[in-house]
Design goal:
Blueprint: H1 3-21, E1 25-28, H2 30-34, H3 38-49, E2 51-57, E3 61-69, E4 81-86, E5 89-94, E6 99-102, H4 111-136, E7 139-143, H5 148-159, H6 173-176, E8 177-181, H7 188-206, H8 215-219, H9 221-253, E9 262-265, H10 267-286
Antiparallel strand pairs: 1-9, 2-3, 2-6, 3-4, 4-5, 7-8
């Protein structure tokens, strides 16, 4: 396994969780008000930076932008002025002239936690690959320094599913090569369950119901309800600050407009997936 494989696995999990993280909320009419791409840009900014802002530029109109505090803080530890920016744009605004949008009350980016979980998923996935290879090649090949290149070629053919390995008469296998069994235990099933547990942790943190609980947990109503309550609390951490910002945008910039921005959770898609998973788990329980 190469460093490229390691990086690809980590980035893959990071991207998967990013897709989930930035698809939970829907900002209806935001693209109509602030231009196509505003909704996507807002969720990406909250995911990466933990905050964003909505402004009404005298020349460019209404926009969603990244934001940084640019002055001292007030008594509530909010900036007096902010630097609103994106590619090709940067401008300072008084805090009261913008709507300051927070990812959560801590203004923490989602990626901070997601990166940790993605790394653990990557470690688990690569360990599965190593354990699988150990079942296929449960040996260490031993030989002298003169035959090391030949030994490498033999092992590469063996691990690469070559059905036949050919050698010439000069390569005396009996004298120059020996193999030591590693007897690596099969732990892929345990690692797979651990991977599901990590994914469950990520989904719970994002406010998505626990899809990967095993069937025993599903049979215990109290535990299921407790898990669902925790998931809803996490979801509310992200929803609350977004809804407050949505209300402020409508009040400050769209009060006299027929178009209002509406925030919602993409529950239909989430519920549909949850029902499908529940049916599978129920079938497993009934079939023992």
């Amino acid at each position: 396994m190469s460093m490229i494989d390691n990086n690809t696995t980590f980035i893959d999990y990071l991207d998967r969780l990013r897709l989930l993280s930035t698809s939970i909320f829907s900002w209806k009419n935001l693209d109509k008000v602030a231009g196509f791409g505003a909704e996507r840009f807002l969720e990406q900014s909250l995911y990466d930076e933990g905050r964003a802002c909505f402004v009404n530029d005298p020349e460019l109109g209404k926009m969603v932008l990244k934001v940084n505090p640019s002055d001292k803080l007030n008594i509530y530890q909010l900036p007096v002025r902010v630097q609103a920016w994106s590619i090709g744009y940067t401008k300072q605004f008084p805090f009261d002239d913008v709507v300051y949008i927070m990812n959560n009350n801590l203004q923490k980016p989602t990626i901070s936690t997601i990166r940790l979980i993605a790394y653990r998923l990557y470690e688990t996935e690569r360990t599965i690959d190593v354990n699988l290879m150990a079942q296929k090649t449960p040996v260490l090949i031993q030989g002298d320094t003169k035959t090391i290149l030949t030994l490498k070629q033999v092992y590469e053919q063996y691990s690469g599913n070559t059905p036949f390995i050919f050698g010439n008469k000069q390569f005396d296998v009996s004298n120059k090569l020996s193999a030591l069994k590693t007897d690596a235990p099969y732990i892929i099933d345990k690692l797979t369950q651990h991977k599901k547990d990590l994914m469950t942790e990520a989904l719970n943190f994002l406010g998505i119901d626990n899809f990967f609980s095993d069937k025993k947990e599903r049979l215990i109503t109290a535990e299921a309800e407790g898990s669902e309550a925790l998931t809803n609390f996490y979801l509310n951490c992200f929803y609350k600050t977004r809804q407050e910002a949505c209300d402020m945008i409508n009040e400050k910039f769209l009060k006299d407009s027929d178009i209002k921005i509406e925030l919602s959770v993409n529950r239909k898609e989430i519920a549909k997936l949850k029902d499908e998973i529940d049916m599978i788990i129920k079938s497993e329980v009934e079939n023992g």
